[in-house]
Design brief:
By secondary structure, this protein is mostly helical. It folds into three domains: 4-180, Globin-like (Orthogonal Bundle); 205-324, Alpha-Beta Plaits (2-Layer Sandwich), CATH 3.30.70.2730; 337-422, PucR C-terminal helix-turn-helix domain (Arc Repressor Mutant, subunit A). Helix content is 61%, strand content 5%. The protein is built from 18 helices and five strands. It has helices spanning 4-7, 44-68, 70-73, 77-99, 104-113, 119-122, 125-142, 150-199, 204-212, 233-247, 273-278, 298-311, 328-333, 337-353, 356-367, 372-379, 383-397, 404-422, and strands at 221-226, 251-256, 259-265, 287-288, 322-323. Strands 2-3-1-4-5 form a five-stranded mixed sheet, with helices on both faces. Strand 2 (251-256) and strand 3 form a beta hairpin. Helix 7 runs antiparallel to helix 8. The chain is rod-shaped and about 120 Å long. The protein starts with a helix and ends with a helix. Pfam families: GGDEF_2, HTH_30. Residues 358-415 form the PucR C-terminal helix-turn-helix domain. Residues 10-25 have a biased composition (Gly residues). This is PucR family transcriptional regulator.
């Protein structure tokens, strides 16, 4: 029996019945293939033989895959059954195509549509290519043996090549569609996670969704908010993700109307990670909430960041990005009770608990406009005593009364503290 390689197109010679010989080729509609329903170039006896052999071909293909592919042998029974169904559909489609070449595209596409919907999740594209290659190699060995003569052997060999091309394109299209669907679903899932964080939803489902997106739930998290750089959400996502990838940081983000919310993973107290990510935002202020220990607490960072974004207009010279903790005075003036409580807890209470002289010194120093000698004369103490008390106040509050911005924070904090005490809140 003549080898298929000696008679097929790979040998470089004309195929019997092909264009070079003046006759039609199976499946080549552009060069005069038979119309649907007309007898093909293969004899009816050969077509009947192929139909009877299709089941054996499918079984032999599965056996070949089991012997050559270790990962195929390790697949669960239901997944292997799904692959076997795909193979059976492909073999049946090939036999039908030989009988009616004009149905090639429809039949090859249906071979993948009839497979289980989630097959692309447990069989990768690379593995699918291996399966198709093994199936085509077996077809090239087995099918020519069923031909009646040399002409039919050549036609069957070329038919395998043509049908294999159609199967390859159908597989690529199927996996591309699955990838697009997964990408769209991941984008929607990511938007849901970020929206849940903004709304303060810390339930377990949010954590599991974030984990499904590749987020480490135990990593530190910081929320940044600001204006998106453009009206094209995919471009915004690409810009933020590119910068995060260069920093080696995990990130979740969502464009919510005219607001971009970014959840950045990892430590942010050192380095320039916040500044680098802020460059992906559009014009205007960018506010970063406090870094929290894990995703479960990220709603606190989001709440503070959004409060700061509403109040940052009160500080035109604010840096970019600016921490929400640095906007406590503006947030308190805007009516944020959380900011008021933080001013009391971080500044007013420590100064009062440290002793009346320390609180009186800071208060007097602010009242006299930050003039050391005037403060000392009003308190009837030496200027060095004022310096010592101010250093002590800085250690307790983290605010230096000699700095204009810190002086504003201290003044507002002391006023808020007095108002809170008058209302009996502490």
């Amino acid at each position: 029996m003549t080898s298929p390689a000696a008679t097929g197109p790979a040998a470089g010679g004309p195929v019997a019945g092909g264009p070079a010989a003046g006759g039609p080729v199976a499946g080549d509609q552009a060069t005069g293939g038979q119309a649907a329903g007309d007898p093909g170039p293969l004899s009816p006896d050969t077509l009947r033989t192929l139909r009877r052999a299709s089941g054996g071909l499918a079984a032999a293909t599965v056996a070949e895959m089991e012997s050559r592919l270790p990962w195929f042998r390790r697949m669960p029974a239901d997944q292997r059954a799904g692959v076997q169904l795909l193979i059976q559909n492909g073999v049946a489609g090939f036999v039908s195509w030989l009988h009616d070449p004009q149905q090639a595209i429809r039949l090859t596409a249906e071979a993948f549509r009839a497979a289980p919907k989630d097959i692309s999740r447990w069989v990768s594209l690379r593995q699918t290519v291996e399966l198709v290659r093994i199936a085509l190699e077996l077809f090239e060995r087995r099918l020519p043996q069923l031909a009646r003569d040399e002409t039919e052997r050549a036609l069957l060999t070329e038919g395998v090549l043509r049908y294999g091309r159609e199967i390859a394109f159908s597989a690529a299209t199927s996996y591309a569609a699955a990838a697009e669907a997964r990408g769209a679903w991941d984008a929607r899932l990511e938007a849901l996670v970020v929206d849940g964080i903004v709304r303060g939803d810390a339930e377990e489902s949010l954590l599991s969704r974030a984990t499904a997106l590749g987020w480490d739930p135990a990593a530190e998290a910081t929320v940044l908010v600001g204006n998106p750089p453009s009206d094209d959400p995919p471009a915004v996502v690409f810009e933020v993700r590119s910068r995060a990838a260069r920093l080696g940081r995990q990130v979740l983000l969502s464009v919510q109307g005219s607001r971009l919310v970014v959840l950045l993973g990892g430590e942010t107290e050192r380095g320039d990670a916040l500044t680098r990510i802020a460059e992906a935002f559009g014009d205007g202020p960018v506010v970063a909430g406090p870094s929290v220990a894990s995703l479960a607490d990220a709603h606190r960072s989001a709440s503070d960041a959004l409060s700061g974004l509403r109040a940052v207009v009160g500080w035109p010279a604010a840096p970019r990005p600016v921490r929400s903790l640095d906007l406590l005075p503006e947030r308190a003036l805007a009516g944020d009770p959380e900011a008021e409580w933080q001013l009391v807890d971080r500044i007013a209470r420590p100064l009062e608990e440290a002793g009346g002289s320390l609180l009186a010194t800071v208060d007097t120093f602010l009242e006299v406009g930050g003039v050391l000698e005037a403060c000392a004369r009003r308190l009837f103490v030496h200027p060095n005593t004022v310096r010592y008390r101010l250093r002590r106040a800085t250690e307790l509050t983290g605010r230096n009364a000699n700095d204009p911005r810190d002086a504003l924070v201290l003044r507002v904090a002391l006023s808020v503290g007095r108002l809170a005490r008058a209302r009996g809140l502490w």
